[in-house]
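[User]
Protein folding is very new to me. Any chance you could explain this protein sequence and its structure tokens? I have pasted everything here:
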Amino acid sequence: MVADDYIERILKARVYEVAQQSPLDPMPRLSSRLDCEVLLKREDVQPVFSFKLRGAYNKIANLSETSARRGVICASAGNHAQGVALAARHRGIAAVIVMPATTPQIKVNGVARLGGEVVLHGDVFDAAYEHALTLARERNLVFVHPFDDPDVIAGQGTIGMEILRQAPGDIDAIFVPVGGGGLIAGIARYVKYLSPRTRIVGVEPEDAPAMHESLRQGTRVKLEHVGLFADGVAVKRVGEETFKLARQYVDEMLLVSTDEICAAIQDTFEDTRTIPEPSGALAIAGLKRYVARGHAHGKRLVAVNSGANMNFDRLRHIAERADVGAGREALLAVEIPEEPGSFLAFCRALGERNVTEFNYREQPGHRAHIFVGFTLAKGAEERHAVTKALGDQGYGVVDMTDNEMAKLHIRYMIGGRAPGDVTDEMLLRFEFPDRPGALLRFLEAIGGRWNISLFHYRNHGSDYGRVLAGIQVPPAEKAEFMQHLADLRYPWVEETANVAYRMFLGG
């Protein structure tokens, strides 16, 4: 079999002038728990703490002298930006880096330290991308695409070459985080050439499934919105070239939740004492979901840790969600009698379990609602058993473990229902770019036409602020209000029918 152009490009890639061959480390704790051999490809140890340096440098190193003298430009949420800045500095040429205004400060600072000219534009990657193309035309700069370029793909493909060289034997599956697709395209092409039996499994967040949906529909799709928790893979549309390669060489795509990503960050820390960024932990989250389906006993599985550019303030949110994502914590809403001793009786009914959270406020009437969290030893099986046992003892129980609004907001604002004079209340959950002044601008955008009867905002250490708002909208004004929401252009979800709202906050 004659090697195709990509195999030759990967073998000739010049990445090692700036990048290193990253370790393929065992994960003994996770391996023992999952009953298989888990190996972690440590791209977090690269000079810019991400694999992106490989593709960026390979592209820039292959530019002609005439093109290189023009200087380069890219659009990136951060990791590709740092790779381009370092590569340009190594070659001695100018680099302009266009980044969304929501980019974590650690990545902005990293680019500036490497000598790149930082331009902040827009709230998402797509806006930064379009602005970068405009600047490239205006200033005659060479555009370095973050994923949809053969030299970039080939640079990332050197990771696959290293994995096959470093593994102690045959590999059953390799799990790869997917944003625009450059990483998985390069790895898949090389690995499938030399080891066609190795499964290539891509992993995306549930709220950014661009490749998953494209492969499912057989054509590239553009997502209307993407979640930004895993900002390194927050891409609305995968590349044309990367999609073509993925269709040929990727065996499967898996989607994972934010909670599963948080749990994977904790898993990585426990085995390596390092902390990946959310997109860097995607592969471990997908590997765990793959193993949970069965038939992975004794298999050798490799996960790619794509980066470690973590904003420190995100750790609070991650720590809160990791145990839920790993099945080690349950969250329940429970109705108990409003009488002395009822809390003690409930705790006795719960047994000797460790209570992690308990929210309660005395209310008028004979019944009270509490929000309780507790640790689990046997995951979902134990959670369902406890829920059933409490119900059998006469308690009204609703499992909130998978209720996103309850985990983001309700658990922090338990305080009773709305007074009787609060009528026509709609409950809405919003997201908006979180930067200085953003909350004020949000409130100004909502305006003073309709009364805000409930408001909860909490900084979760992520790129987007989250607000839960109760707004009084008379039925006759509902159509006008819905048009106002459409004009705002903020992603929103109505939660008026959410059981958590009805139990704890509704009138």
Remarks:
- DSSP finds 20 helices and 18 strands in the chain.
